[in-house]
Design the sequence.
């Protein structure tokens, strides 16, 4: 799998957990300064991390909930549930974010919408959206 394919797979895996846990009873995990996570955040990150460890065991990972693990010059950044407050109050506005950095540059990234099942992804200088199995290139437009 290419790096962008791994990013997409990891985002989809996290989104599946987020989608399945939506509307269920959640456990609040205080992080300080008014910030919090839920057990859905932690579960999604655990599934994402497991997939990354299988696909890219040589890379480092920085997860929002679990911190840093692994070693190596490349680092995967994980936000398993962006929009935790929305999610906790059962508002379907959230995302699952994955990005890969190397030498101070982003190599690949994917953002999954767990509710629409769309995946926005980028690699190099190209960006795409995957919806219902179809990839469409995103092109900036002044309008």
Sequence:
């Amino acid at each position: 799998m290419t790096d962008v394919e791994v990013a997409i797979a990891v985002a989809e895996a996290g989104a599946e957990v987020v989608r399945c846990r939506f509307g269920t009873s959640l456990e609040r995990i205080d992080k300080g300064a008014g910030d919090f996570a839920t057990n859905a955040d932690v579960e999604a990150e655990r599934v994402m991390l497991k997939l990354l460890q299988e696909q890219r065991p040589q890379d480092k990972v920085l997860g929002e909930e679990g911190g840093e693990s692994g070693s190596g010059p490349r680092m995967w950044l994980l936000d398993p549930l962006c929009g935790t407050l929305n999610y906790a109050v059962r508002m379907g506005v959230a995302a699952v974010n994955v990005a890969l950095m190397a030498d101070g540059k982003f190599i690949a990234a994917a953002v999954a919408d767990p509710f629409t099942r769309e995946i926005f992804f980028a690699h190099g200088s190209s960006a795409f959206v995957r919806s219902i199995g179809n990839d469409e290139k995103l092109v900036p437009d002044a309008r």
In short: The mean pLDDT is 95. The two ends are 36 Å apart (CA to CA). The first strand starts at residue 28 and ends at 32. Residues 49 and 61 are 8 Å apart (CA to CA).
